[in-house]
Amino acid sequence: QVGGSRAQETATVRLQPQFSVWLRPTDADNGAFAVKLAMQLTEDLVAEGLSQEEFEATREYLLMRMKTWAQQPGRRLAFAVEAEALDLPDQLQELPASIAALELAQVNGALQAWIRPQDLRLVAVTGDGLALVTSLTEDLPTPIVYRGVEPEPEQAKMDQEIASKRLAIDSWNIVPAEGIFR
Fold this sequence. Notes:
Blueprint lengths: L27 H21 L3 H15 L6 H14 L4 H11 L2 H11 L14 H9 L15 H11 L19
Helix pairs in contact: 1-6, 2-4
């Protein structure tokens, strides 16, 4: 995806659908907790699915968001070229009706069929990669650090459960920032 743009990149043939979870930047004290929380929320999404209210809100958002995808003629052309290259229907023409016709059970079924939290890949930008990997893979609690506020007891209990979670990371690689763009 092109940096600084909220628009879907066009003229990029995708060989498989993309599912990604983005975390906002956080300080190092809360980095491991944020990753564990994102994994827990992804696992919950797959296990429990969307509620009817979440489904309706998401569908409404997508239908409105799609209108921004093709505001310029070049973007409309890129979507049409991509569809022709892949021998697929043009998203701009077909997707609104398909989204409108979706039902909650179809979406929840697709979540369970296609999203596998245990197979997700993690990419993190941090000042100390080894410390992050260690905090995620070893049996060390990574409590959230609140600044100037105390969580409600129920929230504190949930936070403690997430902080004690250990991620099953099979392999990892740390790439120094100095060499990443060479």
